[in-house]
Amino acid sequence: MESELPISHVAFSDESHWNKGRYRSISLITMPYSFNVEYEQTVKKILNEIHISEFKWTNLSGVKGREAAVKMCDFIVENASKGFLRLDVLIWDIEDSRHKIPGRDDIANLQRMYYKLFKHVLSNRWPDGSTWILCPDEHSAMDWNNVKDYLEKVDTKVEIYQNLFTGGKFELSLKKEFKIYKINPLSSACNPWLQIADLFAGLAVFSREQYSTYSQWLKEQEKQKGQFSLFDFEENNEISRSSQERCYVLYHFHKLCKDRKLGVSLRTCEGLLTFCNWKPINFWLYRPQHPKDKAPKKK
């Protein structure tokens, strides 16, 4: 493996609801490698000040979790709008024509979705010649350790890697196509970037699955003429406390994107969506490309 090559960029990934619910997502945060340490310390400081050891979207149910989520949204939007990093979230709908098929293999489909996201971001959104270290959540449904071991054992001159995904039916050239020279699965408890990736993977799914809840919550807030704050929004007994906290995070994030003119839509398609996918914050709802575009089936 060509470990002597300098790493220019780093990517952090996590997925949400990969095998349950109608909507599934992968969140990918990318940036120049030189920014990683400084930014990581900044995010750790944000979490420490709120006294949160690890943020998890599934545990968001109170003020502390909401405050942490809001501050992470502030950080991401500010630095993405300056061009210092990217946030890309790929979402897919298992009720569309690609996925609503008998015998769908969700693991194999997740692998293909990772490929599509890598191709869009690593190949097309950063300078040609960028070399990558990939840091997925170690508890990912993907078996990244096997991919890592395979890459290290294969002759580096052989640039096409089969059998990484879906038993050889789906070819992925990590080194040649994406220039990923190291895969380093990490614990989200120790890495704030993975906690941010978890936040936006969960937020993307929530924005679609619970859009009607969000719409109902927002109408109640607008009755108060928009005079609600991070710490004092109007409670709604018809909506769970956890959903209310998440609705506020969604509201706050969308407002940040609107203020920065980042092109992130929410109401138009009843869920987070970026129409210009080159924008630094990109929510991409995957749609079938042609009639034969079908998710893989279990053998």
What features would you describe in this structure?
The chain is an alpha/beta fold and 299 residues long. The protein contains 8 helices and 8 strands, in the order E-E-H-H-E-H-E-H-H-E-H-H-H-E-E-E. The strands form 2 sheets. Strands 5-4-1-2-3-8 form a 6-stranded mixed sheet, with helices on both faces. A hairpin with a 6-residue loop joins strand 1 and strand 2. Helix 1 packs antiparallel against helix 2, helix 2 runs parallel beside helix 8 and helix 7 crosses helix 8.
Discrete helix count: 8
Structural class by helix and strand composition: alpha/beta
Note the beta-strand portion: 5-15%
- Our measurement of the CA-to-CA distance between the termini, rounded to an integer number of angstroms, reads 32 Å
Order of helices and strands: EEHHEHEHHEHHHEEE
- Helix content, binned percent: 25-40%
Detail the poorly predicted runs: 155-163
Features:
6-stranded mixed sheet, two-stranded antiparallel sheet, 8 helices, 39% helix, alpha/beta, 299 residues
Q: What's a quick, concise take on this entry?
A:
With 299 residues, the protein is of the alpha/beta class. It contains eight helices and eight strands.
